[in-house]
Design goal:
The chain is mostly helical. It has 6 helices and 2 strands. The protein has a single domain, classed as Four Helix Bundle (Hemerythrin (Met), subunit A) (Up-down Bundle). Helix 3 packs antiparallel against helix 6.
Amino acid sequence: MPKLATPALQTFIDGWENYQQLLLTALSPLTDEQMALKPAPHQWAVWQIASHMAGARMFWFHDFLKECDPALRDHFRVAQTTVPGLSLIDAGWEDDERRPRTAAEVVDAFERTWAAISGCFARWTPADLKVTYSRKLRTAGEQVRSREWVIWHLIEHELHHGGEISNILGSNGMAAPDL
């Protein structure tokens, strides 16, 4: 794991990496049927939640921060979506229910995105975390965020959705990640 210049920053990165490993340990043995489990019929399946988590990494690191290989970002794009009104530019794996993702695909997605993010951490200094980026919103206005904000946002995003996965697995009598 790359080392940032301060132990405090490294603590968060190490914690995020450990969280991912706990999640992948729980996901990797799941069958397609288990990956399709949902808390309710109108909510996302395990595969969709996990796909969304990995895909969000590339949205924020590639689309927003302009980091990482475009081919990795494109890996999460879909040719069609089952979500009415959702444009393909905004769609990811989770938005095509005709193509559920396997545990192996999801684990690979997490590992590949983590490798890309780790490459950024290896280059960035603590001062680099303060650099801000902006994008025009489709509605009106502009969104301005720092690298530091993006990292925290992804951590909190994964804590939230990892908890959902843990609840689904535990509610169905399976080993849930010890998060």
